[in-house]
Amino acid sequence: MIAQNLKKINADIRMGSYAWAVAAVGQKAVIPFSIPVHRWDCHAFLYSGRIRAGRGINMSGMFIPGIPGMIIGRTPHHAWSMQVGHAHTSDYYFESPEDVTLDRMETIKVAGGADVTVPVFKTVHGPVINPMPYNPQTYMASADNPIIAWKYANRTYEFRNIEALLDMARAESMDDFGRAIDKVATSMHLCYADKDGNIAYWMSGRDPVRPAGEYRFPQGFLPGVPVAEWDAAVVRPCSTDRNTSKGYYTGWNNKSSAEYDSSYNNLNYTYGIFHRGHLLEEYFSSHEKVSFEQLRDLALHIAATDTFGVDSNKNLHAGGNPWAFVSSAFSAAVQADSTMERIMALAVMNNWDGHFVNGGSSQWAGGTDRADAWMLSDAWIQEVLRLTFADELGEERYEAQSSILLFNVMLHALAGETSAIVNQYDWFQNTADENAPQTASAIIVTALDNALAQLGIRPWGTGKREETVFKHAVLGQVHAMPFSNRSTYAHCVEMGPKGPVRIESMFPLGESGFIGMNADGTPAFDPHFFSMTGVFDTFVYREFPLFD
Fold it and tell me: What predicted TM-score, i.e. pTM, was given to this entire model?
């Protein structure tokens, strides 16, 4: 319901990030990073620039209008990145009407109309977020419309983020930077490199120390289960590490460590065997030495991967290669029950480079065709998931689930007793239909047959690469480029003993967001409105000035 309401008001912001910091000999350190899709609006809500001011402020990088300081940047001493983190910073509480009090009256300025004043209610746990709006005079308690309050650990700490950004920019040592991270109330992953040759990683966020309890559901939801209370001032230490012997830090919104809990309030942060972050770990663990260009262009390599086209929870595309996680099981099932068509299909998969774009690396940025192997992988895996789970969940509930979540449950089921999480239920059986496939192998080959019938005659992926469309609230579409799992901003910084010696960056559209009006009423775009498209759309980057 929340997701649908956000879409109605064009506020369904989607966020994710990837980053890496790599130690180097002689050159001290190299750090690229990116922040993938927030949302492809027109104009972009982030900007690139440089700030020089008093009190030791000399920085360049990316900033968001309205937030003082650089979100991601570099100084003469160091460079850093941010990814969205996964700390469990909030919980929801079921409340009774008598627990609700008026917090304040909020006045909203409406363009072209009268001001609107709305009441904001709260409980001891935090603001009431359901019903929205809440009216104590008309509210009738019901199971379908409970009163829910949102308790989050960074409440009242929000503005410390501004102090943290300034301290991060003014830091003159790795210790200074680490102390600044302690003030970041929101959950982020940060990679860092400095001119002294250090690389480091921190996870930020106020993750409260919780008593034992059931946090997978809102507190007060389960009858007979005590409501768990926690003190937002008492937080657990977040993950951090410095100068790893591996020589690199990397991530793509994955968990900071196996021991760190998932965030139960967002299924996109419920982790499992498969995660797109495996692409980065595999790349770095298999390369002993990498150049600046390789580190920079790694963004294009991973941007050309795609987990599912649009998953059954209607989420946007996500990078990664799920075929690598099922290839052994799927291949074994086909070889045990082979037909000519199944063997030919398996040959298509065995010759695949793992990228959704057809034609090799020269086509990753601008190619228009999806690889036939990706088309088959997507259709095959999705059909295996449907045959595995739809009989238990029902078609409607199955469609409401995240494909990535179900994919991870399936991976545990395929692993059987060797899995780190052993399923206590046989998902592959179908008790409602004795004629349906009843084993994993039977489901796999049946799903392959169904996928091949659905796809029809090859080639399957011609012209199937979608576009990323930039939309203006009034003008509609103003620009489009070939779809990739890519960033809205990226930079790559090579650090030397005296500071940055090479900075390359990119962001979408152009340096100006101004749109005027021609005499005939058509929009007049500023000459620099699209000036970055030649750089951004093709992943070529541009040089950014160094520090004096």
Answer: 0.90
